Amino acid sequence: MPALFRFAPSPNGALHLGHALSALLNFEAAKQTDGRFRLRIEDIDTVRCTEDKITQMLDDLDWLGIRWEEPVMRQSERFAFYEDHLQDLKAKGLLYPSQASRKDIQRAVKEWETTAKSPWPRDPDGAVHYPRALLFEKEKDGGNAAWRLNMEKAQAAYSHPLFWQETGPLAPTYPQATQIAASPQEWGDVILARKDCPTSYHLSVVLDDAAQGITHVVRGQDLYAATSLHRLLQSLLDLPAPLYHHHRLLTDIGGQKLSKSRQSLSLRALRKDGVTPSQIKKLIRWSDADLEAFTAV
Ligand code: GLU
């Protein structure tokens, strides 16, 4: 069975150098392992992800010399599929509806922290855990509700122990794979279906990696901690576990991670300035050492 890699950008902004590194790593790793390479457009946010941005994104990837298998998967066309699996989790009693707004959550946590004089738990991204116990919400499936995973119940339902194979530079035995113990409880009661759409990044990413037959998930280290949650969802949904490789992140001069929201220099802008694909490789400090962990399977 050939290895299957993917690049899964969210077209809510322009591709930047960090994306170029991620896409090239996946593409080159697929070549090096005689594997295959697929593309997936993660456009569940149908307001921010526009056709224009998608067209530009595909054009940038093509310009970089990246070639992918057709058809390109688009998450915005798969809402019914996500909904089905969401129903599965609901039927297992692992989800509950939640109407609280961001403001409600902030207020409840602030009040609690002031009284308790200690911090409320936070997830690895720094967001507060959903304070269900503080909100005394009625669990009613009314109109506009998000669906949250009941982490306590989910923990009881998954098959212990939960691990993933990591081949990225954070693995202590890099470039050899290391078995990493997953700790999904760090995330609290995450949202699996948003108020405005029947899924979330976490739910659709695990369903689609399985649907596309992905064997190697190669993505930035900013998603390392989320892998714990992805392994939990794979276990609850009976999905296979791919290998994970979380690659180095590019930073700007100030040492900050490149990101669309911080208006990092886009590939489009660099192209306009006459930068060539081989210069892009220099800018991302491309080195064959980046591919060391990928050997023919
Ligand atoms: N769509 C995500 C992003 O653009 C990446 C998802 C993944 O690689 O798992 O950040």
UniProtKB/TrEMBL annotation:
It comes from Cohaesibacter marisflavi. GO terms for cellular component: cytosol. GO terms for molecular function: ATP binding; glutamate-tRNA ligase activity. Belongs to the class-I aminoacyl-tRNA synthetase family. One of its GO terms (biological process) is glutamyl-tRNA aminoacylation. Keywords: Aminoacyl-tRNA synthetase, ATP-binding, Ligase, Metal-binding, Nucleotide-binding, Protein biosynthesis, Zinc. This is Glutamyl-Q tRNA(Asp) synthetase. Residues 6-282 form the Glutamyl/glutaminyl-tRNA synthetase class Ib catalytic domain. It comes from the Bacteria. Gene3D superfamilies: HUPs (3.40.50.620). InterPro entries: aa-tRNA-synth_I_CS, Glu/Gln-tRNA-synth, Glu/Gln-tRNA-synth_Ib_cat-dom, GluQ/Sye, Rossmann-like_a/b/a_fold. The keyword Protein biosynthesis applies. NCBIfam families: PRK05710.1-4. The keyword Hydrolase does not apply.
